[in-house]
Structure formats: structure tokens, C-alpha cells
Amino acid sequence: MITKPLITILLLALVLFSSCSKSDPEEPVTEGLDEFSDSILDDVISEFANINDPKSKEITYGTIPCEDGIAIGFPCSNYDLLSHIPLGYFGSSSGNDNWGWTDPDTGIEYVLSGLDDGIAFVSIEDPENPIYLGKLPTATLPSSWRDVKVHNNHAFVVSEAQNHGMQVFDLTKLRSVTEIQTFSADVHLTDFGNAHNISINSESGYAYVLGSNLYEGGPVFIDVNDPKNPILVGGYEGASYTHDAQIVLYNGPDSNFQGKELLFGSNSDGGANNRIVIVDVTDKANPELVQSFTYSNGGYTHQGYLSEDHRYFFIGDELDELNYGSPTSTRIFDLSELTNPLLHLNYYANVNSIDHNGYVKGNLFFLASYTAGFRVLDISGIDEKQVEEIGFFDTYPADNSTKFNGAWSIYPYFESGVIAINDIDLGLFLVKVSEN
């Protein structure tokens, strides 16, 4: 982790740079320290120590602006820290996936924060003062891997924990919570044992459980149109293990498939067989492979997401940076013809961290990039192969190296613009684009 002397330097610089008359960055950071009391400096150092302590139980409240590339010791650009809830406050040891829910009746936004021992529910009605409502404990054992998605006001949770199955939780119960609770699942489906991931197509009302004990680890089809009565209706094993997937009612440029329900899967067997598969899952009894394709210098095809026009597919490989020493890379495929995918662009970041979960919203690509934290790419110029990083918030300030620490996942879809970052080591961060 970051050393104490460097923490002090960063924090002293923050105090100086945030004063009304900022010093020249080239001047020594010790100049003008007599303007600040020891108590103020102690408070700042204490705050940074708390937020970097995995066992801390102290929530950081109130906006901390990103100024001169730093927000309370965290490297940043164009994104301010609104608040932070550490793992210790949740009583958990590590973080993983996350998602969000907006109550359709009240408009209140909630973060569903994945943890080794369950899912935490956090109200962000006021994101500078988040309220932890309680936890849905793991169905069986703790696990580093947990995934959650939302459909029809219900949360659907899977885990790699042995025999975990799928928990279904009615999120409307959060409306009446006035104190921290331990929640129970409304439904527990155990047909498939454990699983790595879950994706839901809310347009069709189907959940797709991925990396389970069924169908060679391929997608398992579960009808969740009635969330409290999930029904396993089939699956697809023709492409072996699917690590993650996005499923859409296709409305892209290939007229041969418009209106079909298509699964875009990130498949890997942990060896040389790394590929992306496109499967027509319109008929759950007879899924059909549309295309399977790969790329050079792959390590582990991890996760991908479509542009909103369904033309481009942004794919992240979890091991290429580690295996080949390349900067963080995002491969972007042109899927104008689904049966003839073309590599359109390989975007390289200016850091070397491992990329993890990425999501598209409008003309932005939001990426959880492990030790490099949360990154934002402007993809408005993708047709001309122009992609540019326009902001970040680094939740792991120690380094940007190729290791599995830092930001696991992000949720960028709240109408408020709040971004929820789930950090493996430090818990939940809420950030928002800087106003200035």
C-alpha cells in the first residue's frame, strides 16, 4: 500500500492547493504551512487513514472535490468523491460486484453492494449522506465472487459459494426500513448449484445464469417474469463455459436479426479457448449459435458490453495485460454484420492495470479497472476510431499495477449521475462528475 510519508505529502499538497490562492505547483509543498493549524492537518491525515483502512467503520460524508488531481489522497480527474462506506462498516472482508435500483414510486436510488458475505443495501437519496439499511446474507458460505442484477423491483443474486443458487429479494421492502436489518430472501432457487454470474434481459423477463454446474457452464435460462416464481426453462451448452454475457432484443444494423433476443457471451475455458459468442436465444427450447470469434494475444475473455445502437461490442480480457505486459486494453468489435465481426479498434489506456467490468451509457464507456480504479471513456467518435479518456477516480492509490486489487465493478445508470464504485479492498465509493 501507499507509504505514510507519501500520504503526508499528498495531503499537504491537497491542503495547500485547495486554498483560495493556490501556490505554483513547482513550489515546495512545505511553503505556507504556518497558515494551517496542526488540528486541521491532523483531521485531513486522519480522514485519509480511515478511508484507506479496510477495517475502518467510519463513513466519509460530504463532497470532497477533485482538485489538482487529488481528492483526499485519491488520484482523480473530473470526478469528485461524494461519500465512502468502508468494508468494516458492512462487517465484511471484501467487495465484488454491484448494481443499482431506483424506486419507481419514490424516485429514491439504492446501491446494491456485493460483498464476500452477502449483499448490502444502501439508500443514496442523499449521496453525500448514504444510509446503510442492512444486508442479505450469503445463502450458504462466504465467497469472493457474488453477482447481482435487478428486474421488476427485485434483486437476483448468485455466487460461487457452494450450492448458493439464486436468491430473489423484493426491493420494495427497503421503503419501510428505519434501522439496520439482516434480510431474508423471498425466494431461493437451488436448481443449478453455484454460479459465477447473472445477466437479465428486462425486455423479455428472462434471467441468464452463467458459469453454473449446468449446461457445461453455459447460460441457464430462467423465466423471471413473475419474480417470486422463477422457472428454469433450459440452457445452452454448445459453446461451453460462459463467464459473462449481455442479452438484448437486437435492434442493430444487421437486418437479419432485428427483433431477435441475442446473447453476447464472453467465453473462456481458462486456456487458449478465449472467444466471444453470439447466440440466438429467442426460442429457449432451441437456442442457435450465430457466430463465435476470437482475437490475438488473449488471456481470459472476461466481459463485454454493446454500444446503445448495437453496432459495437466493447470486450475486456482479464489476463492480457498480465500475460503480455500491454497497457490496459479494450478491444472494440464492429458487429454491423453479426456473422462477420471485425476488430474495429484496440484502445490502450495510459495505465497498465487489469480491466474488469465495463458498461456503456450513451456516448460514454464506464470501466472498473482494478488498481487504476474507475475510468470514463468518451466514445462519441468511435466511428472514426476516436476514443478518449475524460475522467477517473482511482480507489487504489498505491499503484496501477497488474494485480487483482481495487475497483471490481461500477454502476453508472442512476439518473442523478451518481456513480457507485465497488472496491475489493475498501468498499463502496460514491462519485460524481465535477461541476467546475
Index terms:
single chain; 436 residues; mainly beta; 6-stranded antiparallel β-sheet; 5-stranded mixed β-sheet; 4 helices; 41% strand; globular; disordered N terminus
Overview of the structural elements:
By secondary structure, the protein is mostly beta strands. The protein is 8% helix and 41% strand. The chain is built from 4 helices and 31 strands. The protein has helices at 4-17, 38-51, 87-90, 320-324; strands at 70-71, 74-77, 79-85, 95-102, 109-115, 118-123, 131-137, 146-151, 154-159, 166-170, 181-182, 187-189, 197-201, 206-210, 220-223, 231-235, 242-249, 261-268, 274-280, 288-293, 301-306, 312-317, 329-334, 342-348, 358-361, 364-368, 374-381, 386-393, 407-411, 419-423, 427-433. The strands form 7 sheets. A 6-stranded antiparallel beta sheet has the order 1-2-28-27-26-25, with no helix packed on it. Strands 4-5-6-7-11 form a 5-stranded mixed beta sheet, with no helix packed on it. Mean pLDDT is 90; it is low at 1-45.
Summarize the structure.
By secondary structure, the protein is mainly beta.
Number of H/I helices? 4
Whole-number average pLDDT? 90
* Largest sheet entry: 6 strands, antiparallel
User: How many β strands by DSSP?
Assistant: 31
In helices, the fraction of residues equals under 10%
Indicate the low-confidence ranges by residue numbers.
1-45
Radius of gyration: 22 Å
Q: Classify the secondary structure makeup into a structural class.
A: mainly beta
How much beta, percentage-wise? 35-45%
- Spatial ordering of strands, largest sheet: 1-2-28-27-26-25
Span from first to last CA? 31 Å
Shape: globular
